[in-house]
Design brief:
single chain; 338 residues; alpha+beta; Rossmann fold; OB fold (Dihydrolipoamide Acetyltransferase, E2P); 6-stranded mixed β-sheet; 5-stranded antiparallel β-sheet; 10 helices; 18 strands; 29% helix; globular; disordered N terminus; binds adenosine-5'-triphosphate
């Protein structure tokens, strides 16, 4: 694979300032402001319908905001057509032309941009080398595997040398193993190219693995932005804690006190990450086992303690009884925002 100097390919920063977009009564994007640094991998993460795709489409120019502004680099692109923006979109379905070869697919955008023959050939070759697909020039795309098609889609995207590459759940069509492998490749490619990448997903693991920064969205709003570790370790709200970390949330002050010794107000909740609950021999709190699933490396359990249901994951060999002793090793106070 060719080594590229990322400094030569740095993308542009993207900035959204109080962007709003409604569809009838639905505020799909509600006063969203974001600063996405040049060359970074930035994810929009949130449940279905929270406004991720609409935000991405507004950045790409396929959709326009009712209010607010979009900047790419120094330039205000708010009213600029998608074709005139230095952005490219990679879709879930790859959107490759099925009747064309790999070469023709990658070449297409360059022809549209009226790039001359010899330059075009060179660019196609370079783009395919970047994704390790140079040996497939004349292969029909329909005879490629899902992962290979994904790489061709990437080659086609980088061929036009965009400043910003936008991904709308690009891995969701792949099976689990291929998804994880493609994730690693995607991250490596992004590092090499130094392109600003904005990635939409509802998969928290994917966002944590890929991103320099993540914006968590809910009901059209950004609820928290941060790097993966700080979001995972310091969620501000019960929503972020449960969406990102699979935390158990206690909203009842009495239960919170009994289980964690933490006093909370009505506006607060206690978040307990499942890996922070361990099964101990004796001396912990007594819990009733509600369910237990042996998954090889780990066992997932649901346990009822003092009326609260907690889920936990353990690598321990837990006793096969209906009652266990558990210890809560860490918890944190977050806003009671479910
Ligand atoms: P998903 O992961 O399911 O794609 P999302 O987070 O990307 O969800 P959006 O697709 O941006 O969310 O949709 C946000 C809200 O706006 C939803 O309620 C959706 O139904 C609505 N919406 C989006 N596009 C349109 C449209 N063209 N016309 C009407 N409503 C729309």
């Amino acid at each position: 694979m060719t080594n590229f100097n990322p400094a030569q390919n740095r993308g542009e920063a993207v900035r959204l300032s109080e962007v709003t977009r409604s569809f009838g009564a639905v505020r799909a994007v509600d006063s969203v402001s974001l600063d996405i640094p040049a060359g970074s991998f930035f994810s929009l993460l949130g449940p279905s319908g929270c406004g991720k795709s609409t935000t991405l489409r507004i950045i790409s120019g396929f959709e326009f905001p009712d209010d607010g502004k979009v900047f790419i680099g120094e330039k205000d692109v708010t009213r600029l057509d998608a074709r005139r923006r230095p952005t490219v979109m990679v879709f879930q379905s790859y959107a490759l032309f099925p009747h064309m070869s790999v070469k023709e697919n990658v070449e297409y955008g360059l022809k549209v941009r009226k790039m001359k023959g010899p330059d075009r050939e060179k660019r196609v070759q370079e783009s395919l080398e970047r994704v390790d697909m140079e040996g497939f020039l004349n292969t029909p795309v329909t005879s490629l595997s899902g992962g290979q098609q994904q790489r061709v889609a990437l080659a086609r995207a980088v061929a036009i040398e965009p400043d910003v590459i936008l991904f709308d759940e690009p891995l969701s069509n792949l099976d689990v193993t291929l998804r994880q492998q493609t994730r690693v490749e995607l991250k490596a490619l992004q590092r090499r190219l130094g392109l600003t990448s904005i990635y939409v997903t509802h998969d928290q693991e994917e966002a944590l693995a890929l991103s320099d920064q993540i914006a968590v969205m809910r009901d059209g709003k950004i609820v928290q932005v941060g790097d993966p570790k700080s979001l995972y370790n310091h969620p501000k709200s019960a929503f972020v804690a449960s969406f990102l970390g699979g935390s158990n949330i206690l909203v009842d002050p009495k239960q919170a006190m009994l289980l964690t010794g933490t006093p909370i107000s009505k506006e607060q909740a206690v978040a307990i990450r499942s890996e922070h609950i361990s099964v101990v021999g004796e001396g912990g709190m007594v819990g009733q086992v509600v369910s237990r699933q042996f998954l090889g490396m780990i066992t997932e359990m649901e346990i009822e303690i003092q009326g609260a249901r907690l889920s936990l994951k353990t690598t321990q060999n837990v006793p096969d009884s209906t009652q266990v002793f558990v210890k809560i090793e860490a918890s944190q106070v977050v806003s009671n925002d479910l």
